[in-house]
Amino acid sequence: MNLLYAFNLIDFILRLAIVGLIFLIFLNIRRTDINLLKSLTYLKFNIIRKASKYVLFSSPFFLAASLLEYPEFRFVYGEDSIHLAQDIFLFIFQISVIYFLAIVHKALKLPEH
């Protein structure tokens, strides 16, 4: 199996996970009372803030993947090398976004009795 194909498959699976987590968070927000959401967010604020730091520190990888689209980079390093670097950068960013969304989902989830 080609390494670029493997990264494209992983990229697709990670995007599905991101959309799924966003959908779960949306459903939790719709079903929960606003005062309860405020208190859950207040109680878990430090955990959410720590998770947001991972997204902040991985955001340069997202920017770098976009910057590699310039033709000069493709001419110097080659199409396959640029595509592989973009896949790796996006993989790092997507993992941090999934981690952040999982923390937010866990923080906003109602405790079960």
N→C terminal distance:
47 Å
Low-confidence stretches: none
Number of helices: 5
Structural class: mainly alpha
| Quantity of strands, as a count | 0
Topology:
Elements: H1 3-31, H2 34-43, H3 45-67, H4 71-77, H5 79-108
Helix pairs in contact: 1-5, 3-5, 4-5
Structure notes:
- The chain has one domain.
- It has 113 residues and is mainly alpha-helical.
- It is built from five helices and no strands.
- The model has no long low-confidence stretch (mean pLDDT 89).
- Helix 4 packs across helix 5.
- The chain starts with a helix and ends in a 5-residue tail after the last helix.
Descriptive labels:
113 residues, mainly alpha, 5 helices, 0% strand, elongated
In short:
The protein is mostly helical and 113 residues long. It has helices at 3-31, 34-43, 45-67, 71-77, 79-108.
